[in-house]
Write a structure and sequence with these properties.
- The complex is a heterodimer.
- By secondary structure, chain A is an alpha+beta fold.
- Helix content of chain A is 49%, strand content 22%.
- Chain A has two domains: 69 residues; 50 residues, no CATH class.
- Chain A is built from six helices and six strands, in the order E-E-E-H-H-E-E-H-H-H-E-H.
- In chain A, strands 3-2-1-4 form a four-stranded mixed β-sheet. In chain A, strands 5-6 form a two-stranded antiparallel ribbon.
- By secondary structure, chain B is mainly beta.
- In chain B, a hairpin with a 4-residue loop joins strand 14 and strand 15.
- Chain B contains four helices and 21 strands.
- Classes of the chains: A alpha+beta, B mainly beta.
- The interface between A and B is medium-sized, with 27 and 30 residues.
């Protein structure tokens, strides 16, 4: 996908992923937006445009990692309260994010206005 | 006493003849002008060049490095773009090579990267798009359309007939006016001029939209060729194909481009560097050296962080932001360890050139102020 729709506060924006790794926000009215419509027309919307991301579920490993206390705090816990107390704390996090939780990104369909704009370009 | 006074003989016929000598044709026209307005018009005084960066001095993006044109209209020098539907067939570069006659220093250099055989529907060109606001005095598309004169310096490794067109955007485009010029000597600067009267009909852009496009053809296919020196009601880029793209290593240079009202090609108008840069920054500017910071952004409930942006001059419209280096967030001491991407402009005031840029960050905290965003590389484009 060369282009990605990003929705902020119910408004759609076009992000182009460039070959050099940079990204461009293709603001309406600029030559970048004109190029977006041209690419959508010649390459095809289904091929080069991805709809907005509407939901992201974090993989259980990443979710647990983000929530574990810093290592020095964990060692402190073991020193003062014992291993069992430390295991109880860690288990709460493990139960919260079971291994069945995999990372999923949910992408919505490309909004219909894109097709409308491309159709207008084709008729001009 | 008799005093004799003598003086040299006066040749009245010679004196009358002298009166005619110091006044050339232009002087005679000036003396005959009816009022100040007519004299002003004859002298071509005041600001005249409608082209921005016609002396090819400003090159914010590449600073003199060559750039290969992909299959899209691509700006290299400020306000100047190479355009082809075929990727990687020619490169564009600002070079310190220019005719000395008019005090020019830089030129645009196009280099053909292969011996490409263009299909009928292929196009290759070097173009300059002018905002409608800046050419409204030409009354294009009306019965009172003005006459313009285009002048430019050009040189090439290839001699013979070359082509171009005056085009209006309208719809893709709505009107076009093909012309030709001859390069007589290889690798030698030559000045060319073209006088044309604007089209009296057609759909022409207004306001901040594209008003007119100057197109120098580099080998476009036959689909876009048409008779010269007439306005066509469709998209023509030249009378025939220029020889450039079919010859590997061919070079074509252009500079000193001036478009002015009237029938006379006057000397190139040099503007100050600062003025020319400001004119270019209406369409593009960048922070590309990782040295500057924006302060006091705000990260809200999601991954979006908002920072204020103030452009050097009011831009033509809300720009398209490109983030080529996401930089870092800091508190002016320690780093937040985050990465930034996906820039958009959420708000923009055209009159003041001030707005909000929104970037995504993987910094996990939300609802907080980001003290400093630094080390980034950001380009803002409002090109036509």
């Amino acid at each position: 996908m060369n282009y990605k729709i990003k929705t902020i506060d119910s408004k759609d924006y076009i992000i182009r992923n460039n070959d050099d790794g940079s990204q461009t926000g293709c603001t309406v009215g600029t030559s970048d937006y004109e190029q977006f419509l041209q690419d959508a027309k010649t390459i095809g919307i289904a091929t080069c445009v991805e709809g907005p991301t509407v939901g992201v579920t974090t993989d259980y490993k990443e979710a647990r990692k983000a929530e574990y206390p810093p290592l020095e705090d964990q060692l402190d816990k073991i020193y003062h309260s014992g291993v069992d107390a430390w295991k109880d704390d860690i288990k709460v996090i493990k139960d919260k994010y079971p291994k069945s939780q995999v990372g999923v990104t949910t992408v919505a369909a490309v909004p219909s206005w894109v097709q409308t704009e491309v159709a207008a370009l084709e008729s001009s | 006493m008799t005093v004799r006074v003598s003086k040299p003989a006066l040749n009245i016929r010679e004196k009358l003849s002298e009166l005619d000598n110091p006044v050339g044709n232009h002087g005679t026209q000036l003396m005959k002008s009816a009022d100040a307005a007519e004299s002003f018009d004859l002298v071509r005084a005041g600001r005249k060049n409608i082209v921005i960066n016609g002396n090819m001095t400003i090159d914010q993006r590449y600073g003199g490095s060559a750039h290969t044109i992909p299959g899209a209209n691509t700006y290299v020098l400020d306000r100047w773009a190479g355009w082809s539907n075929q990727a990687s067939k020619f490169s564009v570069q600002r070079v310190a090579d220019a005719p000395t006659e008019e005090g020019l220093k830089y030129s645009s250099k196009c280099t053909s990267l292969s011996a490409f055989s263009a299909a009928n529907g292929d196009w290759f060109g070097y173009n300059h798009r002018i905002e409608a606001n800046n050419i409204s005095q030409g009354l294009l598309g009306t019965a009172n359309a003005k006459t313009f004169t285009l002048s430019f310096w050009v040189k090439s490794s290839l001699t013979g007939s070359w082509y171009g067109a005056i085009r209006t955007k309208g719809s893709s485009p709505d009107r076009s006016y093909p012309f030709d010029y001859t390069i007589n000597n290889a690798n030698t600067w030559e000045k060319k001029t073209l006088t044309f009267t604007g089209a009296v009909d057609g759909t022409w852009g207004s306001g901040t939209a594209e008003g007119i496009c100057l197109w120098w053809d580099l080998g476009t296919g036959s689909t876009y060729q048409g008779d010269g020196y007439v306005w066509h009601s469709d998209n023509k880029t030249g009378i025939k194909a220029s020889p450039f793209i079919a010859v590997n290593g061919a070079t074509w240079y252009i500079t000193g481009v001036q478009l002015e009202l009237g029938t006379v090609a006057t000397p190139f108008e040099h503007r100050s560097y600062g003025e020319e840069l400001a004119l270019c920054q209406r369409y593009y500017w960048q922070v590309n050296d990782n040295k500057y910071r924006r302060v006091n952004g705000y990260k809200r409930h999601d991954s979006n962080v908002h920072f204020e942006v103030q452009s050097p001059v009011p831009m033509r419209q809300a720009p398209a932001p490109t983030l080529s280096d996401g930089g870092i967030f800091t508190n002016f001491q320690g780093q937040f360890g985050s990465t930034q991407s996906n820039p958009t402009i959420s708000e923009w005031n055209i009159d003041t050139g001030q707005g909000l840029i929104v970037i995504e960050s993987n910094y996990s905290s939300t609802h907080l102020s980001i003290p400093s965003w630094e080390g980034y590389q950001l380009q803002l484009s409002a090109e036509l």
